[in-house]
Amino acid sequence: MNWLQKIMTPKTRAPSAAGGKGKVPEGVWEKCAGCGTVLYKPELEKSLMVCPKCGHHHAISARARLAAFFDEGSTTELWPKMEAVDALKFKDQKKYKDRVAAAQKNTGEKDALIAMSGRLLERPLVAVAFEFSFMGGSMGSVVGEKFARAAEKALAEKSGLVCFSATGGARMQEGLFSLMQMAKTSAALARMRDAGVPYISVLTHPTTGGVSASLGMLGDLNVAEPKALIGFAGPRVIEQTVRETLPEGFQRSEFLVDHGAVDVIVDRREMRDKLGSILGILQKAPRAAA
Amino acid sequence: MNPNFLDFEQPIAELEAKIEELRHASSGQAFNIDEEVGRLREKLKVKTAEIFRNLTPWQVSQVSRHPARPYTLDYIQAMCEEFHELKGDRMFADDQAIVGGLARINGRSIMIVGHQKGRDTKSKVKRNFGMPRPEGYRKALRLFKLAERFHIPVFTFIDTAGAWPGINAEERGQSEAIARNLLEMADLRVPVICTVTGEGGSGGALAIGVGDRTLMLQYSTYSVITPEGCASILWKSADKAKDAAEVMGLTAPRLLENGLIDKIVREPLGGAHRNPQSMAIRLKAVLLNELDALETLSTDELLERRYKRLRAYGAFSEG
Questions:
Q1: DSSP at A247
Q2: Which end of chain B is more exposed for a tag (fewer CB within 10 A), N or C?
Q3: Which pTM does this prediction carry?
């Protein structure tokens, strides 16, 4: 098991172990990780991977998320060909090149961020989503560049940007290039802020490390999905450092709301309407028809 | 084995001890040992140069966190005619892992902010081993904004293993504090020159590291994670830190080659800790020189160039 698989919950690990996109041999039933109810998979997908019984939010692919978020049929994918370059010729137990190739094969994606422009409640919007199953949604040069371009596009159009994060943080295999993506994406967001173009950061399970400590926490609004793990350091690192057991619910969305780091928790099934309404108010657009 | 010397520095320690011994033995004696001491000094110089010419990335990592390496307050003391430390984030506390204040260098007004480690056990604890909590980053931001208000350029000195990964830091928004600094520094309307003086550890380093120029001392390191952290994740063993350091590309020459930093400031023979005073004087000259160049730009030009520079970081292909 590699480190990415290790930090994934058994739930998120399952699809790639089964061979990824397109090949789903495990059948049509899925047990809810929250309440244990056996769910009919097409039903679960229809409710955006949220358990209809207990509301547990299962992992959802970046593509499925964006498709469900935008107005139907309004989307265009942005910069779909962008790929990682192994600038450091990085090799640990595996070559970085091979890890990327394997992740591409397993996920059908080029890298860990998908960017799209489209319409939300009929108003133009740019949105990006992290694909956690691609190397733990880690941010290297491709993720940073796509995000910065998305911010610049939203700025040029004066539309708005929404980001759904799901990531372990910066991608180690690109060394300092990865760290600098934190500065790059934050600089692009500074320009949006100065121009009054809204940016909403949606933190989903999990969002930690260098992404949390840059574009993740810089929303005009920081929104979280229920019970998502959100933090700078991962729980294991903290436990090893302080040698204490972590309190119940530590670094979960509800904890972040209590500590003032997140504005509001929004159920995935209501995300579209809620963010659409908020953006409408921020941008002083007339109220969209329900 | 002398604990104030790294293992590969032991030959230096031995030669130094020999010289010291000779000088001690000869005091009050009639015979002349100058010649012998001179010979040993020359040998010491050659040996030191030889050791430092061939440092591996892992050895450079060790030099970057050498127990005798100069820290921010050492540089401040050696560089500034005046320094007035300013404390606290005005919200929660004063984090002593970051120090900052108003300085006068060659008569010029400068805001200095840097990580600060301790030397002995007590001061190490007081400084939290140079690992800031959110209030440290918020203090830094307060000082950056103060500098902006009075049109005073900013120098930052980076030397941390990383931001503190503790329960209290998470409760007070470590991520937000770091993120906020990245955004605000990208936008700060005064020249900002960042120097990695020791360990440039991840987001905790970058949180005071966004600016117009990034300098690195010759034997400092800058990386996305510590070699130990990288090793324990990718190799499942912190003992592989040496291997991790090799592939991470964290030394100044590698980073300059990759266009991730702007300049390397040469260290005295045997590293900054062998001659902190001369290191500080050299760094001061480089900093003032860089500042002169930045001050020829208008604020809009400065910010445009800073943005282009930050925006250019990255290596990717588009099919």
A1: P
A2: N
A3: 0.94
